[in-house]
């Protein structure tokens, strides 16, 4: 990944979805992002093509006026938004997809849409919790299960955010497994530092009875702005994508924006 990164944002024409667009546009120049907006009218059968195009044109004009230095494109669609996003991503090869998750907009960024994006494409998906006061992006917390592919995940985070964020790599362990976890973390630190040039990476073992409890503790105690979860088969991190825990990670207020990275 070199040069400008391409970021895809699915939107519904609702006030509740526009904080996602504002969030990305405000960060675009800092991280060298170009932005592609998908405006979905999948459930509004009263809209005709001319009305949809006019609404998109108005949105694009306003975004470009507010953020003249950001490269912005867009398209309005009706129909199956998930399938459209998957097809578009295959042809355009986006570097990041940014979506929100809401309890009451089931036809837009429901768990089905967000989980579908996470599970069916290899592009990283940044899920924003429903909040008008999202944190400044300064500190990334990367969950680890000591899998070698997670080094690629850390490199990807470095590229997406232009190396401008501090990184803490953390592992959650219960009382029974904490000594082994500390030993493995010391070895893991050597592996990561041998593969990544960035020097300001911190390493942490979080003691907790459950993964979710440990995630919350790491976020609060380390002041983490973005949580990074790497999905790798046959590791405990794969459990993060179970429906119940996924819902908690993306909707509980104490959880920050969460970046899901899928690795082989």
Description:
It is a single chain. By secondary structure, the protein is α/β, with parallel strands linked by helices. The chain folds into two domains: 124 residues, Rossmann fold; 124 residues, HUPs (Rossmann fold, 3-Layer(aba) Sandwich). Helices cover 39% and strands 23% of the residues. It is built from eight helices and ten strands. It has a ten-stranded mixed β-sheet, sandwiched between helices. α3 packs parallel to α4. It is elongated, with a radius of gyration of 19 Å. About 5% of the residues have low confidence. This is Nucleotide-binding universal stress UspA family protein. It comes from Olivibacter oleidegradans.
First-to-last CA distance: 18 Å
Q: What summary fits the major beta sheet? A: 10 strands, mixed
**Given the helix and strand composition, which structural class is it?**
alpha/beta
Number of helices: 8
In helices, the fraction of residues equals: 25-40%
What is the arithmetic mean of pLDDT?
82
> Strand-residue fraction?
15-25%
Q: How many whole angstroms does the radius of gyration measure?
A: 19 Å
Name given to the CATH homologous superfamily of the largest domain: HUPs
Uncertain stretches of 5 or more adjacent residues: 103-110, 250-254
What is the architecture of the largest domain at the second tier of CATH? 3-Layer(aba) Sandwich
**Given this structure, which CATH class of the largest domain is correct?**
Alpha Beta
Order of helices and strands: EHEHEHEHEEHEHEHEHE
Overall shape: elongated
Protein name: Nucleotide-binding universal stress UspA family protein
Organism: Olivibacter oleidegradans
